[in-house]
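Appendix B, Record 12. Input sequence as logged:
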Amino acid sequence: MKRSLLLCSLAAVMPLATAVRLSAQDVPVPAEPTNLPDPAPQADPSPVTGPADAADPAETAPGLAPAPEVTQPAHAAWHVDYQAARKKAIEQGKHLLLLFTGSDWIPLCRIFDRDILNQPDFIEAATEKFVLVRFDFPKEKRLPPPVAAQNQMFMRAYRVSAFPTLFLTDTDGRPYGINGYQSVTPANYGKIITDMRQMGALRDQYFEKADQATGVEKAKMLVKGVPDLPGNLSARYYRPQLETIIANDPSDETGKVEKCKRLIADVEYADRMQKLEQQVEWSKMLDLTDAYIRENNLQGTERQQAMFNKVGVFQKQGNLPEIVRTLLEIVSIDEKSPQGQRAQASLDRLRTHKLEEELSPR
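Logged structural output:
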């Protein structure tokens, strides 16, 4: 079966129910890590946060029974120590299934646990090919500091922006499949997950063919092998392959060279932004973002997303006028896009807050 994984639309891995989108305030920052093991995946810089949006309401899929108020304990097959799970996967010749969840505050996560993830039919099917790892972000209970720090690190590494989310990775931490909640039986969901293991096998087959090829043919095999991942994850986990595509396809016969270059540029921009944030260089962060927008000629939703980084910087500066001006510009680009709607919601909250201040008795 020949198909490109780089830019294909993988309908089988798209969640069918609405996950909870996360804002900067939704997940508590853990205490400083103690004895934290090094992760296999490359650490990813935290995205620059946008305005302090209120958490979106937790939604449940239509027709589902309400989730229980009490969080159910996870099945024993779920590991919380990534390194222990990785060691077991290597020993057993399996891959890793990584779950990111908010078990005690998101109804959809509780439903997912109750109806699928802790059911024997799913556990039996999934553990044939995967070792299961659970990264939980509860609000009511406090995790041990090393576990909380580990979970935060992996959330950043995989750029997780919604709960619940599942990643399928090899034991080197390279993701190749993403999924979420689907309203199916535990056995059917287990089959969906085990069938997705074929995506990793296809990736490896194309990479092996690329090793035996040269020039454009090598680039074509790599284009077919590199998984299509959200954001710039492909560049974070498959950068050597992307660079090889660029080097071996000078005439862009694959039609993917520019995309590969953009993905790499996105990673470099994010890394530089994180360093500047750590150094509290707000003005340089703004200049870098303007240059990034200009040099890559960002338009539409891509431009909006980059401008949200500026909103985050202005928020750290406490510069309300610039926050408002930038949000208005985001809306003017495309008020119907997810980013435009997010910006409009932020503006509405700011207006409401200002009105409440004006009307409150002195």
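The radius of gyration is 22 Å.
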